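Researcher: Quick test of sequence recovery. Tokens follow.
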């Protein structure tokens, strides 16, 4: 007897369902495509990229939060730390931590408008490859430059902090969010470079040569940003 149309329909349905289960079977080979967004960093063709590693030692939490917020999957690896002790102790620790583990070691500090202190920090760092990112009167000047130009001297570090607080009411030394400054990094580099084109006038008030660290970081990220303005 020939099968009825209804039985043939049920058979076709079962065969179709069986094919679907086979396609979903764990024995089916899976795609081996490599993601281009991994922690190790990979190029678009799946080959591993070489990423530089920067050690950035900071004076306090404000600087630490700023640079930690800059980390990205495709940029250089940034290790951020706040050593114990005063300015000179931090520079000395930076000197001690220079090793083949890092492509560059930076120490981010305030000059505090102190000529003798600045000279001592420069001498200590000069004994090694440690680079200093100094701001006068303080790091908050660098943050201000993300939002407004600033050429008038400050009487103290507190005066710079008050100005930054006026620009960003939510900011405090315990609450620095890189997101509040991310869009102004290139502008800050331009403004800071105009204040100190060579990055050597550490006591010029106001000034910051942190733009030199940003240039180094951006130069290492040219694949992500082929035209870094800080470079």
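Model:
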């Amino acid at each position: 007897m020939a099968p009825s149309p209804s039985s043939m329909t049920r058979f076709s349905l079962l065969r179709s369902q069986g094919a679907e289960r086979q396609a979903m079977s764990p024995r089916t080979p899976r795609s081996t495509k490599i993601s281009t967004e991994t922690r190790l960093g990979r190029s678009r063709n799946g080959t591993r990229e070489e990423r530089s590693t920067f050690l950035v030692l900071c004076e306090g939490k404000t600087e630490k939060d700023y640079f930690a917020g800059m980390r990205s999957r495709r940029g250089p690896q940034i290790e951020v730390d706040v050593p114990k002790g005063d300015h000179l102790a931090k520079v000395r620790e930076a000197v001690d931590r220079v090793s083949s583990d890092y492509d560059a070691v930076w120490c981010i500090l305030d000059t505090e408008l102190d000529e003798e202190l600045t000279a001592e920090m420069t001498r200590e760092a000069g004994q090694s490859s440690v680079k200093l990112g100094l701001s006068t009167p303080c790091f908050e000047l660098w943050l201000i430059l993300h939002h407004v130009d600033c050429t008038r001297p400050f009487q103290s570090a507190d005066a710079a902090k008050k100005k930054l607080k006026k620009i960003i009411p939510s900011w405090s030394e315990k609450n620095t969010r890189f997101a509040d400054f991310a869009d102004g990094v290139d502008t800050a580099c331009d403004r800071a470079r105009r204040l100190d084109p060579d990055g050597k006038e550490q006591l010029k008030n106001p000034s910051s040569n942190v733009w030199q660290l940003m240039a180094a970081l951006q130069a290492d990220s040219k694949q992500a940003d082929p035209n870094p303005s800080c470079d």
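Residues 5-23 form the longest helix (19 residues).
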